[in-house]
Amino acid sequence: MIEAIRLSDKRHADALHRRYCDFWLVDGEMELHAPKAEKEPELAPSATNVEVNAPDISTSAEEPRPRKAKKAK
Q1: Rounded CA separation 56/34 (Å)
Q2: What are the backbone angles phi and psi of residue 70, rounded to the nearest 5°?
Q3: What pLDDT is attached to residue 47?
Q4: How far is CA 65 from the centre of its chain?
Q5: What are the φ and ψ backbone dihedral angles of 13, each rounded to 5 degrees?
Q6: Are 31 and 41 in contact, with CB atoms under 8 Å apart?
Q7: What is the dihedral of CA 37, 42, 47, 53, to 10 degrees?
Q8: Residue 25 in contact with residue 17, Cβ under 8 Å?
Q9: Could you read off the pLDDT tens digit of each residue along the chain, which spans 73 residues?
Q10: How far from each other are the two terminal CA atoms of the chain, in whole angstroms?
């Protein structure tokens, strides 16, 4: 129908096409008014998880050497 109108009045046909058939505009309007989807936040490791996952240094093969007492001068 719009193409038939375009034969006699190009401006009117362009206005009709823009208002009723230009779905690019419709999609843009829908995106403007659509509810925003919330992203789930990425979970950062907590201090507790870091401690639990850290290697246990108390069970190492080498035992720490005892410190010698300092002599008084």
Answers
A1: 51
A2: -80, 140
A3: 53
A4: 51
A5: -65, -40
A6: no
A7: 140
A8: no
A9: 999 999 999 999 999 999 888 888 878 888 888 887 666 666 666 555 545 555 555 554 556 666 777 776 6
A10: 109
**Torsions phi, psi of 28, nearest 5?**
-65, -45
The pLDDT assigned to 61 comes to 54
Q: Which amino acid is at 56?
A: D
What's the pLDDT score for residue 2?
A: 93
Q: How far is CA 70 from CA 18, 64, 73, in A?
A: 92, 18, 9
Token digits of residue 51: 């401690």
Would you state the structure tokens that stand for residue 43, as one six-digit string?
């979970």
Encoding tokens for residue 34?
């659509």
